[in-house]
Every structure is written in C-alpha cells, then in structure tokens.
Amino acid sequence: MSNVKKVLGGLVLATTLALGGCVVVISDEGISSDGQGLHWGAERADRADAALAERVRSALFAEPLLKDAELTVSADDGTVTLKGEVVDLPAFDRALQVARATEGVEKVVSRIRVELR
Questions:
Q1: Which pLDDT tens digit goes with each residue over 94-109?
Q2: Are residues 78 and 64 in the same domain?
Q3: Which residues contact 67 (CB under 8 A, 6 or more apart)?
C-alpha cells in the first residue's frame, strides 16, 4: 500500500510503504535507520539541535563571567534561545557574545533577565 502526500508549503514529498510489518517513511528531510526500517528527517534535526544547544551550554558555563548565571539553552535549526538570569550587564553581553561565537549558531534570541544583586 502506498500513500503519497505533497505539501506545497515546504514541498515535502512523503511516501509510506508497509512491507511485512516494516514501515518505511521517505521524505526530502533526510534519512536514518534505527534497525526497524528507514526513517527520514525530524530525528536527525532533533539530534543536531540538541548537539548545538549542548555546545552553546558548555561554552557559556566555561566562561568565568557567567559562573553565577542561571541560563537554559535551546536550539532550533541554527537559532539558539537563551533564557534565565545573569547578575549584571557585562555578564549579559558576554552570554550573547559566547553564544554567537559558537559554531553552528546562525541567530541568538535572548530571553535573559539582568538581576542586579
């Protein structure tokens, strides 16, 4: 059985085949295998986003100016979002600099609050 779907917004062509209990999904987003068939797309993107967020997080927490910061990092397709609190404006500026300088970051969205103590 074959189900073909074309979505014009992203021009995604997906085909799903059921072969003896194995489901194969094909689209233009990528491919990976988990041993139970072929799967395209979102799983690889999720891993790439998680890896990017971890690189930014590691760089931030290695920075002495940010030792008292309470930050969370998320990534979505090259866009990194920083949330949380820092203790002063130099720490705020440094967090943005470090995130922007991290390989793979295309854009930084700041949701950081400066909590003067």
A1: 999 999 999 999 999 9
A2: yes
A3: none
